[in-house]
Design goal:
Largest sheet: 4 strands, mixed
Number of helices: 19
Oligomer: single chain
Bound molecules: protoporphyrin IX containing FE
CATH class of the domain at 108-375 and 437-496: Mainly Alpha
Radius of gyration: 25 Å
Structural class: alpha+beta
CATH topology of the domain at 108-375 and 437-496: Cytochrome p450
CATH superfamily of the domain at 108-375 and 437-496: Cytochrome P450
Helix content: 40-55%
Distance between the termini: 92 Å
CATH architecture of the domain at 108-375 and 437-496: Orthogonal Bundle
């Protein structure tokens, strides 16, 4: 018995020693990593092991935006800054030279850790190997080439009818609220209309989220977006208070993929029997799969989910931020409203040619993306050593790029915090490599033109029909939920404008 006890104590001691050795070795490794990166400027680490993480955690608790901290750091430490977390060091590059080098070339893949995290959501396949997350250049390139025709200019011009129709449905819903008293979230309304648009245009689905977003499918998309926000909280999977949300997010994702499967099967049949010849995103997804050696249903579903996620919230956020900025700047609102009146007059349906004439509105939308980019940046992985702004960046490093931060740096934009659409006038100097709300280079947004056509149609109709006011007392803070969105949802009150003679609703 005593011998057994002695053996157990010895085993425990050995285990403890091994543990101490492992901790010691890990600390040596962390020191080695520090030595490799400490020549890169950065704020002092708060802790040897945790690095800068405690600062981030404190900010997250207070719902503050970490990008604002990095903006302060960039002013203090320069355009290349280090960020430490345990044995990992990421480098933030806020210089046009760096943006050009890393984003314009296909040789730097997206970061495996950051994009790997959204392969699954709470254990259910989420964006998988879809177009946003695919890290294999050959495979991505094949997918992108097949998808391109659904975003060609000629095809997009044909979408004007749907943009008009869905925006008109939004106007009808807003008219019901436009008594100058009812308060509502502009973000919610914009999310519903952009969801209806992407569902119809990409997959031929009539969701009617504008009429009722409690129906299962739109609700599932809302829950998935919520899941995306929550999955950023460290250890959220283990928090008892979050289990209901996690269950709902998982079920919603399964529903989305199930509906995607039905859509794909139906469309495949329709194409085979010669009944379907639209060039929409769903058809392109099927064509892409036909090029593969083996049928890959999961990959097709990854793209189904990808287009729903990438193609609606981003535009909804841009639209809501634009409403917020305009309501805060009455003189700009007046000018853009005058342009809309001049171009559209009493017209109900907006043509592609009209969009080209709404030049100041384009500038307003661009300026909104400078201060409030729904996708704040992008992340790459470098396998070779680089020197940017005279700072050596070691091989095998995560490099982060932020249009949010660069868009607010005095170095690149005069009086950066002022909302001034004239920065984007025809004669103004172009912000090369310091403004990239749709990213740049080969992995830039495939939906950029689509999104800006949609945003212009919605904004033009809104400006033509309504006066809008912000409800006082809201914070106007930004929330980073994977995309940047207005924390308080842009609470508004609307009043109808007197419409030009001859307008027919
Ligand atoms: C204002 C609206 C939008 C903004 C600000 C935006 C922004 C972006 C950004 C910054 C990226 C690069 C992401 C990264 O590097 O990880 C991206 C990629 C992408 N976006 Fe958008 N986007 C918008 C609208 C749309 C729409 C409407 C669609 C679909 C119809 C779409 C589909 C995609 C896809 C599929 C990719 C991946 C492209 C690739 O890697 O080949 N986006 N978007």
């Amino acid at each position: 018995m005593a011998a057994l006890g002695g053996l157990a104590a010895a085993a425990l001691l050995l285990l403890l020693l091994l543990l101490l050795l492992a901790v010691g070795l890990y600390c040596c490794y962390v020191r080695h990593v520090h030595a490799k990166y400490d020549h890169i400027p950065g704020a002092p680490r708060e802790s040897f092991l945790l690095g800068h993480l405690p600062i981030i955690w404190r900010m997250m608790e207070k719902q503050e935006l970490i990008h604002d901290l990095f903006l302060q750091w960039s002013e203090k430490y320069g355009p290349v800054i280090r960020f430490n977390a345990f044995h990992r060091v990421s480098v933030m590059i806020l210089s046009p030279e760096g943006v050009k080098e890393f984003l314009m070339s296909p040789q730097y893949p997206k970061d495996p850790l950051v994009y790997g995290r959204i392969f699954n959501m709470f254990g259910v396949r989420f964006l998988g190997n879809g177009l946003v997350t695919d890290r294999n250049y050959e495979h991505w390139h094949k997918q992108r080439k097949v998808m391109d025709p659904a975003f060609s200019r000629t095809y997009l011009i044909g979408l004007m009818e749907t943009f008009n129709e869905k925006a008109e449905e939004l106007m009808e819903k807003l008219e019901e609220k436009a008594d100058g008293k009812k308060e509502f979230s502009m973000l919610t309304m914009m999310s519903r209309v952009t969801l209806d648009v992407i569902a119809k245009i990409a997959f031929g689905l009539e969701l009617n989220a504008l009429s009722d977003d409690r129906t299962p499918f739109p609700h599932a998309v809302t829950m998935i977006m919520k899941g995306m926000t929550e999955m950023r909280i460290p250890f959220v999977k283990y928090m008892p208070g979050k289990q209901k949300m996690i269950k709902e997010a998982r079920e919603s994702l399964r529903l989305l993929r199930r509906v995607g499967k039905e859509c794909i099967d139906q469309r495949r049949e329709a194409i085979q029997s010669g009944k379907e010849d639209t060039l929409d995103i769903l058809t392109q997804i099927l064509k892409g799969d036909a090029l593969e050696e083996t049928r890959d249903d999961e990959n097709m579903l990854d793209n189904f989910v990808t287009f729903f996620v990438a193609g609606h919230e981003t535009t909804a956020n841009q639209l809501s931020f634009t409403v917020m900025a305009l309501a805060q700047h009455p003189e700009i609102m007046e000018r853009v409203q005058a342009e809309v009146d001049e171009v559209l007059g009493a017209k109900r349906d907006i043509s592609y040619e009209d969009l080209g004439k709404l030049k100041y509105l384009s500038q307003v939308l661009k300026e909104s993306l400078r201060l409030y980019p729904p996708v704040p940046g992008t992340v790459r992985w470098t396998e070779k050593e680089n020197v940017i702004e005279g700072v050596r960046i070691p091989a095998n490093t995560t490099v982060i790029f932020s249009t949010y931060i660069m868009g607010r740096m005095e170095r690149y934009f005069e009086d950066p915090l002022t909302f001034n659409p004239d920065r984007f006038s025809k004669d103004a100097p172009k912000p090369y490599y310091s403004y990239f709300p749709f990213s740049l280079g080969p992995r830039s947004c495939i939906g950029q033109v689509f999104a800006q056509m949609e945003a212009k149609v919605v904004m033009a109709k809104l400006l033509q029909r309504f006066e809008f006011q912000l409800v006082p007392g809201q914070s106007f803070k930004l929330l980073d939920s994977g995309t940047l969105r207005p924390l308080d949802g842009v609470m508004c009150k609307l009043k109808p404008r007197s419409l030009p003679k001859g307008f027919q609703a």
